[in-house]
Design a protein that fits this description.
The complex is a heterodimer of chains A (135) and B (862).
Chain A (H helix, E strand, L loop, with lengths): L1 H25 L5 H12 L3 H26 L2 H11 L6 H30 L14
Helix pairs in contact in A: 1-2, 1-3, 2-3, 2-5, 3-5, 4-5
Chain B lengths: L1 H25 L7 H5 L7 H5 L6 E4 L7 E5 L5 E4 L3 H28 L3 H4 L4 H10 L1 H11 L5 H23 L4 H6 L8 H16 L3 H12 L1 H7 L48 E4 L11 H13 L12 E6 L10 E9 L1 E2 L4 E7 L2 E7 L6 E5 L3 E7 L5 E9 L2 E7 L2 E4 L1 E9 L2 E10 L12 E6 L7 H10 L3 H8 L7 E7 L4 E6 L3 E3 L8 E2 L6 E4 L7 E3 L5 E4 L24 H10 L7 H8 L5 H14 L6 H10 L11 H24 L19 H14 L16 H20 L8 H4 L1 E6 L8 E5 L15 E2 L1 E3 L2 E5 L8 E5 L17 H5 L4 E2 L3 H6 L4 E6 L1
Parallel strand pairs in B: 1-32, 3-8, 7-25, 12-21, 25-27
Antiparallel strand pairs in B: 2-3, 2-32, 4-15, 5-6, 5-24, 6-28, 6-29, 8-9, 9-10, 10-11, 11-18, 12-13, 12-17, 13-14, 15-16, 18-19, 19-23, 20-22, 25-26, 29-30, 30-31
The chains are: A mainly alpha (135), B alpha+beta (862).
Chain lengths: 135, 862
């Protein structure tokens, strides 16, 4: 039960993080993934979850509005055209790459700072000091 | 130990975060700031959303007095219906900005010398040139001269408000056009001065010339005698002036106001604009570097000019308009056509609109950034424009002395120059200082040795907007003519037709006259050669209901050789007259003309010079020994009527031949006399250069009537005739084409070597249209200017056929582009196909548009 509850909290945390990213984007706050993933990393306990969750928050947070837009607008063509304007031919994949690179870099930075800050303030307890059931 | 590791990790994490933020804020290398640019909701991705065509909806537009309706037809043409004139102009500003905000910003930056701020040092020479020439100074003066109550002032203020509403909304919603995001800047608020700068851009495009410098370079190399023989004041070939006289010789009229330089100021509301000068003073600046020779000085000026974007440097002299009375039309009512030839870009220079308000009722095309149509019709009159081509730029050699730094000698005394200091912001670099020296004649375009001040009509305030608003409201020729008295620059041939059976043409604008000196050359700056006035309005070329029953202009000289004033010379830059020949030949004896007849003429690709000179070429070849290939090529030309069709091999042979004929005739002289083509490309021997224009006139005249002209002989005295040079040029042409296109002349189609390309205004190849094999050349009515890859030509084609008093005209038009600047929009280039195929779209009324299937309506609420 505790594992389920813990997983549920993690999912909720990720969902909130995604919403924070989305809300920030719509207001032009492009650093919202950085902020959201930092807060996530401070809140989440395990290192693996800190980084994996941050990646999910940033990527999904960026993907959702694009997916929503793609239902009504020519998002793929926009990528091709922007790539062409930037001098990359009509290689829209590059614009997609830049977009998600931006998300991932922020996720990495946010998670790393959050993790490091948490570690430096509260040095991690020995790995085996916790009861088995908390593993 | 673990804590130390954690702290080190934190430091590294913060450093990495700093790098991420830096990339987000400043970008990486040539990439824009990644953060704002690639944010999925407000970054470049909004281009997809912006591509959507308007839907029927209600929007809020601050500043309106009453609700306004805008209908968009299926092609994107906008129809505005407003209850006050103020609301009409505000809605127009809103519309322009919604569709063309980046174009508008680029155009104002061009004129204000602010391109470097967003594109970097590559635009620095353009910015320096513009700040020296002074479009911004003139625009500010224009604005200051607009008194309260001036309708142009009211229109400009309302229009600016509409533009700023869009800027505010776009910023709030993150929906600024994609180019702002990629270049990483936000548009400054729009001001009336920005509009007046765009007026200056167009004046520069149409009126600014360096022909006097070219005359001087030619005179120094070829000698004065040959220069004036080959580049005469009056064209040597037969042209068709529309104003045949009798002419009036009246005293010169004063030029209303001279260039003024104001101290920096902010508009009411505190909106600053442009690269305002940091300071202005007289005779107080730091000493500036000096050069060594006047030749050096000229080279500097020309290299500056070369740096201008193509869109704003007048290289080509093309446009057509004509009107016929009811005596020549099928329905017995006047009919008018106009097709201004400008650089063809995507987005186009034009935005098509119709507007209704208590004071206005019009349909036509506007220039984004300006609050009115320039060409179109109202309920009573129709009009269109071509360029007059008279001399509007005069160069003065100021007398300076090391003993009198920053002074010049004028009117018997040493005078202080006015020094204007600018700081040009440059993206990624420190601002670049620029000091502009002003004399009584105008800005000095360089500071090297002998100074050349530029006295340009475009630097004078001109009430063009007020004049155009008057035209839009005019109900008859008298009001039309009255409105044109305010028009000073660029001088334009305003053609006219009304619903009461009248036609007319007025070449409105300033025609500067000097009392002394040769105005086609650089003049003395000491006083006697100064401009002393302009041809009075009553004496400028004009016609009203002429006996011929038609009026027309195609940049040919508007008047006969006995016109009592100097208005310009063959190189500055009246057309060769070949388009005028075609129009004249078509209209002179025409009857029962219909809109379809006019459409056929507007899309005519017959080169009249080719038609008249080909028989002369064939006669020259008659006694020549020709190879099989040469005979085949010559055989093709037999019976050819000069049509520059895309599938015509004759067109290819002709075009390369006439260029070769030009080179073979004048090339030896150019080589012997060292004409400085490398210093000034305008002097190159090609039919598309400024020098090539009058030389082609010479060839036409001499080939027909003076085949032994000394110019055909070689400088070493070897005698040659026109026939000999033509035959040799033909053989060279065939050899060259065989090498280029193979040895079957029937396959030398014009469309294989001649293309049109509509470049992106931002010079982005991926957003351009073409190059695509095309018919026409520089001298066909359907002009393709610029050589083998044409970038200029009919930028808008319009036909208006009146149906009688009180009746709405039948009007149609098309331009090679679309209403939107968003490359993803269905309206980005949706009119290109129709334009290319010679088709037109009806110019409808508000109520007609409302009934159209696929139309959408915006209701704008205050």
């Amino acid at each position: 039960m505790r594992n389920t509850a813990s997983s549920g909290m993690l999912m909720l945390g990720i969902l909130i993080g995604i919403l924070v990213v989305w809300a920030g984007e719509t207001r032009g706050i492009w650093i919202s993934p950085l902020v959201a993933t930092f807060l996530w990393a401070v809140w989440a306990k395990r290192t693996a979850w800190q980084y994996a969750g941050a990646a999910i928050i940033a990527v999904v947070g960026y993907a959702i509005p694009l997916a929503v837009a793609a239902r009504s607008f020519p998002v793929g063509k926009a990528a091709d055209t922007v790539a062409a304007i930037m001098g990359f031919g009509h290689q829209g994949i590059i614009v997609w790459a830049f977009t998600f690179l931006l998300a991932m870099m922020q996720a990495a930075a946010g998670a790393w700072v959050g993790h490091a800050l948490k570690s430096s303030v509260h040095a991690p307890a020995p790995r085996y000091s916790r009861p088995y059931r908390d593993w | 130990m673990k804590r130390i590791k954690s702290i080190i990790s934190l430091i590294l994490a913060l450093a990495f975060t700093g790098l991420v933020l830096d990339a987000g804020v400043r970008g990486i290398g040539p990439l824009p700031a990644l953060g704002p640019a690639f944010n999925p909701v407000t970054g470049v991705w909004t281009m997809a959303q912006g591509a959507r065509t308007p839907r029927t909806e209600t929007l809020n537009l601050p500043g309106l007095n009453h609700p306004v309706q805008i209908i968009f037809d299926a092609r994107g043409t906008a129809y505005i219906k407003a209850r006050t004139d103020h609301d009409l102009f505000l809605a127009l500003g809103f519309l322009h900005a919604k569709s063309r905000l980046f174009q508008m910003d680029l155009m104002r930056r061009q004129g204000e010398g602010l391109l470097s701020q967003v594109v970097g040092p590559a635009a620095l020479s353009s910015d320096k040139f513009e700040l020296q020439l002074g479009l911004l100074r003139t625009a500010r003066t224009n604005w200051l001269l607009m008194r309260r109550g001036n309708p142009a002032r009211q229109a400009l203020l309302a229009y600016s408000q509409g533009v700023n509403d869009v800027i505010r909304q776009d910023e709030a919603q993150g929906t600024l056009p994609v180019m702002f995001k990629l270049l990483g800047y936000r548009p400054a608020p729009w001001t009336p001065i920005d509009t007046l700068v765009i007026q200056g851009d167009m004046t520069q495009d149409l009126d600014y010339t360096t022909a006097p410098i070219e005359y001087q370079l030619l005179s120094q190399s070829l000698g004065a005698s040959r220069t004036m023989a080959w580049f005469p004041i009056g064209e040597p070939n037969v042209q068709h002036p529309y104003d045949l006289g009798p002419y009036r010789k009246e005293a010169l009229a004063p030029i209303e106001s001279q260039t003024m330089t104001q101290v920096p100021f902010a508009l009411a509301g505190g909106i600053p604009t442009g690269a305002l000068p940091q300071s202005i003073g007289g005779n107080s600046a730091q000493s500036l570097p000096t050069g060594t020779s006047s030749a050096n000085a000229r080279a500097v000026a020309l290299s500056d000019l070369a740096s201008l974007t193509n869109a704003f440097h007048h290289s080509f002299s093309d446009s057509n308009n004509w009107a016929v009375s009811g005596a020549k039309t099928a329905n017995g009512e006047p009919m008018l056509a106009g097709d201004p030839h400008l650089t063809q870009t995507l987005p186009s220079i034009w935005y098509q609109i119709a507007g209704q308000a208590p004071g206005y009722h019009f349909a036509g095309v506007s220039i984004p950034g300006t609050p009115m149509i320039l060409i179109g019709h109202n309920q009573n009159i129709a009009w269109s424009l071509t360029n007059v081509q008279n001399q509007a730029t005069f160069f003065y050699r100021e007398k300076t002395s090391a003993a009198h730094p920053n002074q010049y000698f004028w009117d018997g005394a040493w005078r202080p120059m006015t020094l204007v200091h600018y700081q040009i912001p440059v993206k990624g670099r420190a601002a670049v200082p620029l000091t502009v020296k002003l004399t009584v004649h105008g800005p000095i375009m360089n500071q090297s040795g002998v100074s050349l001040a530029v006295d340009w009509v475009g630097a004078l305030p001109s009430s063009d907007i007020q004049s155009m608003l008057g035209i839009i409201q005019a109900r008859n020729f008298q009001r039309f003519r009255q409105a044109l008295k305010l028009w000073h620059a660029p001088s334009q041939n305003f053609i006219y037709a009304d619903n009461r059976g009248n036609i007319g043409l007025i070449s409105a604008g300033y025609y500067p006259e000097v009392a002394h000196g040769q105005p086609w050359m650089p003049l003395s700056g000491t006083g006697p050669d100064d401009i002393v006035g302009t041809i009075p309005f009553n004496a400028v070329p004009q016609a009203y209901n002429p006996a011929s029953q038609f009026v027309f202009s195609a940049n040919q000289r508007e008047v006969s050789n006995n016109y009592p004033y100097y208005i310009g010379n063959a190189m500055d830059f009246f057309s060769t007259g070949f388009r005028a020949d075609t129009i004249y030949a078509t209209l002179a004896h025409a009857k029962n003309l219909t809109p379809s007849s006019f459409a056929t003429l507007q899309n005519n690709t017959q080169d009249m010079l080719a038609k008249t000179m080909t028989p002369e070429l064939l006669a020259a070849l008659r006694d020549q020994s020709l190879s099989t290939l040469q005979s085949q090529a010559a055989q093709l030309l037999h019976g050819w009527n000069g049509t520059m069709g895309v599938n015509n091999p004759q067109a290819t042979i002709w075009w390369f031949f006439i260029n070769q004929y030009l080179k073979d005739t004048f090339g030896p002289w150019w080589s012997q006399d060292h004409v400085p083509v490398s210093q000034d490309a305008n002097l190159g021997l090609s039919i598309t250069t400024e020098a090539g224009n009058p030389l082609t006139d010479d060839l036409e005249a001499w080939t027909a009537k003076d085949p032994n002209n000394p110019a055909f002989s070689l400088p070493n005295g070897t005698h040659r005739t026109a026939d000999m040079v033509m035959a040799e040029a033909f053989k060279q042409t065939v050899a060259s084409l065989a090498k280029k296109l193979g040895t079957n002349p029937t396959q030398w189609q014009w469309g294989q070597v001649h293309f049109r390309k509509f470049a992106s205004l931002a010079q982005i190849p991926a957003l351009a249209y073409g190059p695509r094999g095309s018919s026409g050349d520089s001298w066909t009515v359907d002009a393709a200017d610029g050589g083998l890859v044409s970038g200029a030509g009919p930028s808008w084609r319009m036909i208006v056929s009146w149906q009688g008093p009180g009746k709405r005209p039948f009007a149609e038009g098309v331009y090679p582009g679309g209403q939107s600047e968003n490359p993803l929009s269905p309206w980005y280039e949706n009119q290109v196909a129709a334009w290319w195929n010679g088709h037109y779209y009806p110019m409808e009324s508000f109520s007609q548009a409302k009934r159209q299937p696929g139309s959408a309506t915006w209701t704008l609420n205050p």
